[in-house]
Amino acid sequence: MTGNCRLFRGFIILLLLCLLMGCWDSDEIDNLAIVIGSGFDIVNDGQAEATVQIASPTGFPSAGNGGTEISPYLSLSEKGADSSEIINSMQQQLSRRFFLGHRQVIIFGEEYARHGIDQFIDLFMRSPDSRYTGYVLTAYGISAKDVLNASYVFENIPAIAINKMQEEGNALGTLVGEFIASLASDEKTTVTGAIRIVETGAAGNVYRIDHAAVYRENSLAGFLNEEQMKMLLWLKGKLQGSMMSIQFEPKSDKFRGKVGIVFFKSDAKIDVRLENEIPHVAVQMKAKAKMMNNDTPVNMGINENLQQLEKKFVEKIENTLNNILETAQKEWKVDIFDFAEEIHVQHPQFWKNTKDQWLELYPKVPVSFQIELEIQNTGRTQAPAHFKK
């Protein structure tokens, strides 16, 4: 009897394994229109326009040269009143099933983002085969369609180039999963990298992701410039590899007067204390950097000069942080540094009682910054004769 039971169990396990190995609802790759990137814009009639890049392993005939030139992707745009209408119109033009499982980037055009991103993206972002590990970006000064239709000099498919730029980590990167979570959170602000085209030519275009887009209540509130974006990366613990420069000396015939550094270590800590039921926030930020260039006659190998350089960088950083805070509190009313999250952790009862009024309370919150910067590796083992003492 025992032997029969073991035989029966073995048969059941073998049957289950056979079932697991089967792909009953799978599609052959030749039957899929694989979307690598998608974007959303608002057009003049108020409708949404979606643009997709669809990759092909064999290439698509292009419109030029009698259709003989082969393109590695197809760019397709459609307008509609809602996402279902748009995707249905696109599907009617394709011999393969629309598939979002390999999408690497989603881009919102600036006008679309300012209009509000809720209405048309649900199907594209919440589809069962939609990829949550791709990146969300906002187009800076242009449309998403312009970005996705611009060929890139180093990659055959522009969406792949954009994805690789985000993975390099030198700009703010927001994954689809992080983006959706921040939209639903009371404690985290929605921020994405902002992309623009800075160079065009016969060989292709060059992108830059050197701004950050800040959202409030699912609409674009404004942009952070490159220096401001780096401060946000610092608070998020992602400053490593970022560069910064200052005008240390007046420009002359021989020298531009600039000094540049690259950060290789950073840390940030936020402390919150309550006074008369008002949070007071103290932000401590520490970083270490090495010198990248010194286009001045000043010898940074001398300790006093190096300390003066560190002081000037700290002044610039403090001014940048205070400018961000002024805009975020007074103009955007956006908790850009996610102070709410720290208040929740450090003072949970206070947060429970006030979270519904946080956006009204936030502009009144006093914030102080304490910056410590150490510049190492000045790169000069012997000072040239022209250096100032």
Give keywords.
GMP Synthetase, Chain A, domain 3; 2 domains; 33% strand; 13 strands; alpha/beta; four-stranded mixed beta sheet; nine-stranded mixed beta sheet; 389 residues
Mind explaining what this structure looks like?
This is Spore germination protein KC. One of its GO terms (biological process) is spore germination. Residues 25-195 form the Spore germination protein N-terminal domain. The protein has 389 residues and is an alpha/beta fold. The chain folds into two domains: 27-224, no CATH class; 238-389, GMP Synthetase, Chain A, domain 3, CATH 3.30.300.210. The chain is 33% helix and 33% strand. It has helices at 2-21, 83-92, 110-115, 118-126, 144-148, 158-168, 176-184, 226-235, 303-332, 339-346, 348-354, 358-361; strands at residues 32-42, 48-61, 70-80, 97-99, 105-108, 135-139, 191-201, 204-216, 219-224, 243-247, 258-275, 278-295, 367-376. The strands form two sheets. Strands 1, 2, 3, 4, 5, 6, 7, 8 and 9 form a nine-stranded mixed β-sheet that branches. Strands 10-11-12-13 form a four-stranded mixed β-sheet, sandwiched between helices. Strand 11 and strand 12 (278-295) form a beta hairpin. Helix 10 (339-346) crosses helix 11. The radius of gyration is 26 Å and the shape is globular. Mean pLDDT is 84; it is low at 21-25.
Total of helices: 12
The mean pLDDT is 84
Beta-strand portion reads 25-35%
The radius of gyration is: 26 Å
Alpha-carbon distance between the two ends: 96 Å
Describe the global form. Answer: globular
In percent, how helical is the residue content?
A: 25-40%
Largest sheet: 9 strands, mixed
Q: Tell me the count of domains.
A: 2
List SSEs in N-to-C order: HEEEHEEHHEHHHEEEHEEEHHHHE
Tell me the total number of β-strands: 13
Q: Which ranges are low-confidence, i.e. pLDDT below 50, for 5 or more consecutive residues?
A: 21-25
Structural class: alpha/beta
